[in-house]
Amino acid sequence: MDSARTQFLAGDRPDDVLLFIAESAVSDLGTLAQHGEQVERGVVLILEAERGRSAFEGATGVDPMTLASSAMGSEGDLDLDAFEGECPEADANGEGGADEADDAETTTEEHAPRFVFGFAEERNEEAGGIYAEGDVIHAYAVCECGTAYSDRWVASE
Questions:
Q1: What CA–CA distance (Å, rounded) separates 125 from 91?
Q2: Which pLDDT tens digit goes with each residue over 14-69?
Q3: CB burial class (10 A; 0-12, 13-18, 19+) of residue 143?
Q4: Phi/psi at 112 (5° precision)
Q5: Residue 139 and residue 150: Cα distance in Å, rounded?
Q6: Is 65 in contact with 138 (CB distance < 8 Å)?
């Protein structure tokens, strides 16, 4: 993992956003890969917020704020180390997570994050809840199945 992503996940880059674009989401990762970190299923970029929002929309055709609005009502689990997730649609269909026996590989591929937009929010004791515990990472994903979902956690957890 590169230092920019490590810093982002620690909550140390609140003015930046994280983008993950899977190979399946775009016709060519070449240009994105030149500016980001190549990972197993795609590319990760850590960019200044405004530039990142623009790059995300340009690469995916999805406005990140629209994604956030649509994903907030559906919570799942996202791992921004491995870019894996537990899509709520997989659970709703009884498909289970990637640790289920026979169909683990198929389920993982069908319900892997296609793209992710994330940002860090600085600790805010007045807001209470997890926001009082520390910096919070917000992540919004679109699954390979098309389901939008979100996750959030205290940084470095």
A1: 34
A2: 999 999 999 888 877 788 888 899 998 999 999 999 999 999 999 999 999 999 99
A3: buried
A4: -85, 150
A5: 6
A6: no
Q: Tokens representing 53?
A: 């929002």
DSSP lists the bridge partners of residue 85 as 78
Alpha-carbon gap, residue 103 to 1, rounded angstroms: 29
H helices present in the chain, as ranges: 3-9, 30-35, 49-60, 64-71, 88-92, 104-110, 130-133
Q: Round to whole Å and give the CA distance between 49 and 54.
A: 9
Instruction: Identify whether the C-beta of residue 43 lies closer than 8 Å to the C-beta of residue 21.
Output: yes
What global pTM score does this model have? 0.86
pLDDT digits 0-9 by tens, 100-156: 444 444 446 788 999 999 999 999 999 999 999 999 999 999 999 999 999 999 997
DSSP letter assigned to residue 24: G
Q: Give the DSSP letter of residue 115.
A: E
Amino acid making up residue 78? L
Q: Tokens 């995300």, residue?
A: 56
76: nearest Cα among 141, 20, 25, 129: 141
149 touches 72 (CB < 8 A): no
At 2, list the tokens. 């590169």
Q: Report helix, strand or coil for 75.
A: strand
